[in-house]
């Protein structure tokens, strides 16, 4: 996970979208007419559609020329390898790799458009700036730049691919600072209105939600639904975080931030999503959920009450007792020793006796004074939350990893929630509007670009 965070520091946007159009002459292929509701999409479509040629619109050769800049198949392959290595994804199926290639091609097109637009505004990222950022990324991975280069090559990527991504991120950030941020103004009344709404909503439940959105219409709803179900299956089977899939599949602008919708109240969500999220527990994934315009897959990261202290934020002082099982310990022997361990911890009378009890059973003791209840696994957090100072949890663990118990030595309960400062609210509004204008600008660049696929 340390690597994944390192890549996140480089920049959130991993995948983009761009309209792909291709025409080929050849044999005529007949298709069934679309449902009558297809016209609702706002397009003037014929009732009987004929495709001239055998080109599958979902199959693209991974090369393109974007306003005279060439994106090669090697560029695509190396960026795919970079994403897989960054997310510790390991081997993926050929179908998943093909989908990822298409998405990477779109990302590289967006990246190229951003660099070109920055240059048209006399913004150039120097080689020294790129090198400095590359060195920082290497340090995030606990590697020297030379070791990082070796790691990238061994992963099937390259220094060049990573540095190109760095250049795109830096160029676009600088463009936004120069051409967008100065023209975004936040009024004092806006800030005050938000603070007033927060105060009025005190005690209301909020949800930290991530989303994958797939657009659909009457004509392709069944296919998109099947695709969404496939993504749900991938999420259930994979070890990757939800954000990894949001970057790959989501068609919403929030894919740039791994599908993060931030903290929202049920009233701020579409009715279908509000109903689902209110029934979810933290850590759960739900979907696909039919919403206007498509389907959503939701992940509930956490929930809380507005401006109300959350008992899970209490900071704990703990002592952990652990016994390990020697190699070759059979199940009966492990059960017997675990039972003896459980009997011993029942004799603990406050944290002052922990070391003495541990010595009688050969247990190791580790202190931790910084952990919060929310940092513990849910089932363990629920037990610890009910402990009084000096009490211990029931034994837990496994034969492979040993048996443990936590003893509560102290608890610092959180203070009541406080309103954010005016400056914090203003900064958040500023960032939201800059991101919105950045998306609008990128759409304009895509619309005006000359993209030739090879």
What's the short story on this structure?
By secondary structure, the chain is α+β, with helices and mostly antiparallel strands. It is built from 14 helices and 13 strands. It has three domains: 182 residues, Porin chaperone SurA, peptide-binding domain (Triger factor/SurA peptide-binding fold, Orthogonal Bundle), CATH 1.10.4030.10; 147 residues, Chitinase A, domain 3 (Roll), CATH 3.10.50; 102 residues, Chitinase A, domain 3, CATH 3.10.50.
Folded structure, characterized:
This protein has 14 helices and 13 strands. The chain has helices at 2-10, 73-86, 94-120, 127-140, 145-154, 159-179, 188-200, 221-237, 242-249, 271-277, 331-345, 354-361, 378-384, 422-448; strands at 28-30, 50-52, 64-66, 69-71, 205-215, 260-265, 285-291, 294-305, 315-323, 364-372, 396-398, 402-412, 451-453. Residues 1-41 have low confidence and may be disordered. α4 crosses α6 (159-179) and α11 (331-345) packs antiparallel against α12 (354-361). It has 3 domains: 2-183, Porin chaperone SurA, peptide-binding domain (Triger factor/SurA peptide-binding fold, Orthogonal Bundle); 188-308 and 419-444, Chitinase A, domain 3, CATH 3.10.50; 311-412, Chitinase A, domain 3 (Roll). By secondary structure, it is of the alpha+beta class. Strands 6-5-8-7 form a 4-stranded antiparallel sheet.
């Amino acid at each position: 996970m340390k690597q994944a965070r390192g890549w996140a520091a480089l920049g959130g946007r991993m995948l983009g979208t761009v309209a792909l159009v291709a025409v080929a002459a050849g044999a005529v292929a007949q298709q069934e007419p679309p449902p009558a509701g297809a016209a609702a999409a706002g397009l003037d479509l014929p009732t009987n559609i004929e495709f001239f040629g055998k080109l599958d619109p979902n199959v693209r050769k991974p090369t393109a020329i974007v306003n005279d800049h060439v994106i090669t198949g090697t560029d695509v392959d190396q960026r795919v390898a970079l994403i897989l290595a960054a997310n510790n994804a390991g081997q993926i199926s050929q179908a998943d790799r093909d989908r990822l290639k298409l998405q990477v091609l779109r990302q590289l097109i967006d990246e190229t458009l951003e660099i070109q637009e920055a240059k048209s505004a006399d913004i150039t990222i120097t080689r020294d700036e790129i090198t400095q950022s590359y060195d920082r990324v290497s340090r995030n991975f606990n590697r020297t730049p030379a070791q990082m280069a070796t790691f990238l090559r061994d992963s099937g990527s390259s220094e060049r691919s990573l540095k190109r991504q760095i250049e795109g991120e830096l160029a676009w950030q600088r463009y936004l600072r120069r051409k967008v941020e100065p023209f975004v103004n936040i009024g004092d009344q806006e800030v005050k209105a938000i603070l007033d709404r927060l105060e009025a909503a005190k005690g209301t439940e909020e949800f930290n939600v991530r989303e994958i959105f797939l657009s659909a219409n009457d004509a392709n709803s069944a296919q998109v639904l099947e695709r969404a179900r496939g993504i749900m299956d991938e999420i259930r089977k994979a070890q990757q975080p939800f954000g990894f899939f949001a970057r790959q599949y989501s068609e919403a602008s929030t894919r740039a931030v791994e599908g993060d919708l931030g903290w929202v109240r049920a009233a701020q969500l579409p009715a279908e999503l509000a109903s689902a999220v209110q029934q979810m527990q933290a850590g759960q994934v739900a979907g696909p959920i039919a919403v206007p315009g498509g389907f959503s897959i939701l992940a509930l990261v956490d929930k809380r009450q507005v401006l109300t202290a959350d008992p899970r934020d209490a900071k704990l002082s703990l002592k952990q007792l652990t016994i390990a099982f020697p190699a070759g310990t059979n199940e009966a022997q492990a059960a017997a020793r675990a039972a003896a361990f459980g009997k011993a911890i029942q004799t603990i009378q406050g944290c002052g006796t922990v070391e003495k009890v541990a010595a009688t059973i050969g247990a190791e003791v580790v202190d931790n004074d910084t952990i919060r209840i929310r940092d513990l696994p849910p089932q363990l957090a629920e037990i610890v939350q009910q402990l009084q100072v000096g009490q211990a949890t029931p034994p837990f663990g496994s034969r492979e990893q040993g048996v443990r118990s936590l003893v509560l030595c102290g608890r610092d309960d959180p203070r009541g929630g406080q309103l954010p400062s005016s400056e914090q609210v203003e900064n958040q509004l500023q960032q939201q509007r800059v991101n919105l204008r950045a998306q609008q600008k990128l759409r304009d660049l895509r619309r005006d670009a000359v993209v030739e696929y090879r």
